């Protein structure tokens, strides 16, 4: 009986997930003793009754590297340590089903697990490893917020999508002499916003790492509009906040979803600018989940493929309890503990920040 390696995609979707799955399967095809199976909707597929999983062979993964999303489905709700159940009284609580998950792995002859996900998914990976699970993590997030890898796949595609949107907003801003605000994703890190602002030529870039002063933003915009024809473009990350204010977020009643829901800071900024007396027309665009979708660019397909091959080879070597990481120019393994130890905020002394300031981008500080 062949040994099985279980693959799953957890957390939010992002471009490149299918390229990883394809790479794992194609590399495993060279190993006659191994078979790859995929769990549907992260760990849910194994914990559901009946279990939901699929055999991943060359036929199943043919051509999927060019497709966005994931053929396995994904979820950012619940998980084996916090499985939501409804009580007889109609209330919801969470239970720990991790021991049951490991028992089902044994039932399926799963000898290794490859978990493709962000910081939340890899925190689960670490807990399962501590319980004896042979697990490897692969970093996935458009937010690029895992500090142990130079880049995560999906990020560059998200930046490309956001930059294309900003390019389009520039033309309408110029035509109508308006101030255009583009709100992008990123949660508590400003990587997407910063890269987009530099690539798209924004006048202002607002990121969570720098609390902004709306009066300084107004000054930067007025200098621009007075000198160069009356329009300007602002890129703002969803987790940004003013120096005297809070993050714009909403709680959620979704069962099993723990994160606050960010979004709307672009509209908040527009109102703040109007209150300063700014007379220019202001329009806000929230890009939202468009950043997660569509065809992954070549960079992310290549990085995802490198991650997938490396992960399967770590399985073959028995090098568990680690996450695949990109440390230019190499693909390496770092411990899961290291992978989730710290959040990848933008270093305010970094060359990228200095580059942005050097070309005149204001951070509202």
How would you sum up this structure, described in words?
By secondary structure, the protein is an alpha/beta fold. It folds into two domains: 3-153 and 296-339, Rossmann fold, CATH 3.40.50.450; 156-292, Phosphofructokinase domain (Rossmann fold, 3-Layer(aba) Sandwich). It is 36% helix and 20% strand. The strands form four sheets. It has a seven-stranded mixed sheet with strand order 3-2-1-6-7-14-15, sandwiched between helices. Strands 9-10-8-13 form a four-stranded parallel sheet, sandwiched between helices. The protein has a two-stranded antiparallel sheet with strand order 4-5. Strand 6 (110-117), helix 5 (119-130) and strand 7 form a beta-alpha-beta unit.
Just give the CATH class of the largest domain.
Alpha Beta
The end-to-end distance, rounded to whole angstroms, is 63 Å
Name the strands of the widest sheet in spatial order: 3-2-1-6-7-14-15
**Number of DSSP helical runs:** 12
Radius of gyration: 22 Å
Number of discrete domains: 2
The mean pLDDT is 93
Poorly predicted ranges (pLDDT <50, ≥5 residues)? none
Q: Please count the beta strands (DSSP E, at least 2 residues each).
A: 15
CATH topology annotation of the largest domain: Rossmann fold
Oligomer: single chain
CA-based shape: elongated
What kind of sheet is the major sheet? 7 strands, mixed
Run of helices and strands: EHEHEHEEHEHEHEHEHEEEHEHEEHH
Name the beta content range. 15-25%
Question: Given the helix and strand composition, which structural class is it?
Answer: alpha/beta
So, CATH architecture of the largest domain?
3-Layer(aba) Sandwich
- Helicity level: 25-40%
